[in-house]
Amino acid sequence: MTVRRIGAGIGAWAGRAMALAMLSGIAHAATPADPSGTWLTEDGRARIRVEKCGPSNKSLCGYVVWLKVPLNDKGQPRVDFKNPDASKQTRASLGHQLIMGLKPNADAHYEGKIYNSEDGKSYDVTIWSDTPEELTVRGCLIAFLCKSQTWNRVTDVVAGQMTGPTNGPGGPRTDPEYMAAKPAAAKPGAKPAPAPAAGTPPAAAPADE
Prior knowledge:
The chain is an alpha+beta fold. It contains one helix and eight strands; from the N terminus they run αββββββββ. It has one helix spanning 2-29, and strands spanning 37-40, 46-53, 59-67, 97-104, 110-116, 121-131, 134-142, 145-154. An eight-stranded antiparallel β-barrel has the order 1-2-3-4-5-6-7-8. A hairpin with a 4-residue loop joins β5 (110-116) and β6. The relative contact order is 0.15.
């Protein structure tokens, strides 16, 4: 009788341990590998800087930091002339944001929108990294019309590549819609907010996406 109880106890403990191990594995798998870095696109025509962004740095943004052909046929810097937003058609192609605050999903990938300046369209995109040196970028115009590319990590700096911080000198630019929201204007007649007590630090501004 005692042997049976001990055996049953060991079996129950082993079952719980296995369940915990499986849950731990699932939780670990749901955390996407960090793809931050600079990547050469599959066709070799651009380098894209990918970095964390948004609140708590949980989202993913990407910027064009180098173009193989930075000038147009007139010898002028390329601009985003196919953008459907007329206000962006004169912005420089070099330095613009193309990966728009992707969010982690249940498959341990990042998903959201990517902008293609070649045709002025935005696509659903999923990005993940199975190895430190490769980034898989899967874009879909519609659910059944998808295409994947493999981007390769680069660590060198070539002529014409932006190296400055995002939104800083010599760096790429965040799209206005992904900048931190400005505080709403006070309504007429509204009472001003009370001043903070002496020694109270100001609240931190929300992070850019």
